[in-house]
Amino acid sequence: MTEHRTVLHADLNAFFASVEQQANPALRGKPIAVVGGSGRTVITTSSYEARSFGVRTGMAVWEAKRVCPEIIIVVGDNRKYQYTSTKVNEIFRDYSPEVESFGIDESWIDVTHSLSIFGSAVTIAHLIKARILHSFGLRCSIGIAPNKLLAKLGSDQIKPDGLFIVNPEDVARVLERMPIQELCGIGKKVQKTLNMMSIYTCGELGRTELSRLTAKFGIVGKRLKEMGQGVDNSPVVPYGQEDDVKSVGHSRTLDKDISDPVEIKRFLLQLSEMVGSRARRYNVSGKTVHLYIRYADFFSSCGKQTTIKSYINQSDDIYRTALSILNTIELEQPVRLLGISLSNLKNQDEQLPLFEEERQKLFATQAMDKINQRFGEMAVTYGSLIPGKEKAGSHVIPPSWRPDGIKSLDVK
Questions:
Q1: Of the N and C termini of the chain, which has fewer Cβ atoms inside 10 Å?
Q2: Are residues 146 and 214 in the same domain?
């Protein structure tokens, strides 16, 4: 399957910062950093001008100002990013219907069946880059390879505005000395474990005995060995053709770290409404509710879940279950991020509830969902969320955002 495919991975460079610079000419050519909200103190992304001073994603604002005193802090605007990402993906679909978004600023494009029309993958890549630059003033890096894993690896090699080609016959050479952490899917924990096994490069990973990897990682060991060899048979899956939703959730980084139980409960109610609304949109309900908390020091976190007897998708039911979990947790620090997810799902039964009170609740919820779908999320909401609801959290787009809507929002 892989030897006959040609896959592109397009990565919009410094996306949030670049969009802000194009929207405001006064920011062009200057070091800027985008933050999730006016009270948030962590850099979401920075322009390449700022990166040249050492400003990095995840850096505290005070630290960014220390290494780059001239830096300009900009509060992110999701609407601009979502609009631009949607339009860029429309450009991708002009060259192939097989486009899979991997977040708001990157996508895979399988051009295998488009080569006879446009001539070559390199030609398609140049056409895409030129159109994005002309239409939006944005630059992107593109990797061309026989599969998604290697295409993603390629787009990461040259930034900004890069083009990197991994031909099938060059896979072994490219991977031989490539650090394992360059592969998408190998995080810090896996990297640390592999390093403890004296495995540092993709070449070494690909040559490691399968039995040794499975003894340490279980069935994942087989996938790791394949990754080290550059093998990836996963297809490019266009939006709408994904597998069924396995969980529905939402997480939110708060504008400020909070300790007040009343505030925490208020945010849990807001998240429960977001999760419930999406579950009802997908016509699913679930039995397992998971609560995730990240603390103020950014590194410490905790997560607990509970499985109840009945399936739920009503926001207040999700909220009460999340609240019961919270009551079992002794908070160690002020809270920086909260997340709720609903899993153990099944398709929702469309039969009306037996009791009148439950039917009225269902009809009210359906009416609220219709209004919010038409006029925007939280247009109609619980009274306790109205005061300051616009400041209920930072405006950071979750990694699972998709240009055509959200298929699944898993709490990470």
A1: N
A2: no
Q: pTM for the whole thing?
A: 0.70
> For residues 342 and 248, is the Cβ–Cβ distance under 8 A?
yes
Q: How far is CA 88 from the centre of its chain?
A: 17
- Whether 158 and 164 have beta carbons less than 8 Å apart is answered as yes
pLDDT in tens, 297-336: 766 788 899 999 888 888 889 999 999 999 999 888 899 8
Residues 269 and 365 in one domain: yes
Indicate whether 224 and 305 sit together in one domain. Answer: no
User: What CATH number corresponds to the domain at position 16?
Assistant: 3.30.70.270
376 plus 359 within the same structural domain: yes
Q: 128 with 63, same domain?
A: yes
Give yes or no for a cis peptide into 179 (omega within 30° of 0): no
Query: How remote is the C-alpha of 25 from its chain's centroid?
Result: 28
**What is the number of domains present in the chain?**
3
Asked whether residue 398 is assigned to any structural domain, the reply reads: no
Half-sphere exposure of residue 376: CA atoms within 13 angstroms, side-chain side:
3
Nearest partner of 99 among 107, 57, 76, judged by Cα: 107
Query: DSSP for 40-90?
Result: --BEEEE-HHHHTTT--TT-BHHHHHHH-TT-EEEE--HHHHHHHHHHHHH
Tell me: do 273 and 222 sit in the same domain. Answer: no
Q: Per the domain annotation, does 326 fall within a domain?
A: yes
30 and 159 together in one domain: yes
> What are the tens digits of pLDDT across the range 85-110?
999 999 999 999 999 988 889 999 99
With cut-offs at 50, 70 and 90, classify the pLDDT of residue 38: low
CA angle 20, 74, 43 (to 5 degrees): 105
Is 106 assigned a catalytic role?
A: yes
Where helices occur in 208-251 by DSSP H, the ranges are 210-217, 220-228
Q: What are phi and psi of 393, to 5 degrees?
A: -175, 170
For residue 196, what are the domain limits? 172-228
